[in-house]
């Protein structure tokens, strides 16, 4: 729930920021900001830590964010190779699909490694 909500908001934010800068830079900035936000939300709510994530968990989460950034950039690059001038809806669909796939992987990394010691059950 946390990751999905932040993912949808991130998609809109990338589009808005891309109007002011390159898409790759906008994606990098939004990926960094959404990673910090999601790590905090997951620490407090999803994985039952009940407290802030701390620097160690943020650094651990950064690796999965880098992979997520690579996945969304690659998917968007492929879209632009196939359709040099895609519409905003096509670009958003590809971004959201790639972000959802990457987000599922990030969730598993967070659950199995980063927050393994605080996860309930």
Describe the protein's architecture and organization.
Helix 1 (2-18) packs antiparallel against helix 2 (23-46). The longest helix is centred in the middle third of the chain and has 29 residues, at 54-82. With 121 residues, the protein is mostly helical. The protein starts with a helix and ends in a 7-residue tail after the last helix. The protein has helices at residues 2-18, 23-46, 54-82, 88-114. It is elongated.
Task: Describe the structure using short key phrases.
elongated, single chain, mainly alpha, 121 residues, 4 helices
**Number of contiguous helices:** 4
Per DSSP, what share of the residues sits in E-state strands of 2 or more residues? under 5%
**For the terminal residues, how far apart are their CA atoms?**
19 Å
Q: What would you report as the Rg, rounded to the nearest angstrom? A: 15 Å
What's the β-strand tally?
0
* Bulk shape: elongated
The chain-level mean pLDDT equals 87
Spans where pLDDT lies below 50 across 5 or more residues: none
Please identify the structural class as seen in this structure. mainly alpha
Q: Biggest sheet: strands, sense, closure?
A: none
Helices and strands, in N-to-C order?
A: HHHH
Percent helix, as a range, is over 70%
């Amino acid at each position: 729930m946390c990751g999905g909500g932040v993912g949808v908001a991130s998609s809109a934010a990338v589009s808005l920021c891309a109007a002011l800068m390159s898409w790759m830079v906008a994606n990098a900035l939004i990926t960094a900001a959404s990673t910090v936000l999601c790590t905090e939300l997951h620490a407090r709510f999803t994985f039952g830590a009940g407290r802030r994530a701390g620097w160690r968990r943020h650094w651990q989460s950064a690796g999965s964010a880098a992979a997520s950034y690579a996945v969304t950039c690659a998917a968007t690059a492929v879209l632009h190779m196939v359709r040099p001038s895609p519409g905003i809806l096509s670009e958003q669909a590809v971004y959201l699909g790639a972000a959802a796939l990457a987000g599922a992987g990030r969730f598993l990394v967070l659950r199995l490694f980063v927050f393994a010691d605080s996860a309930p059950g």
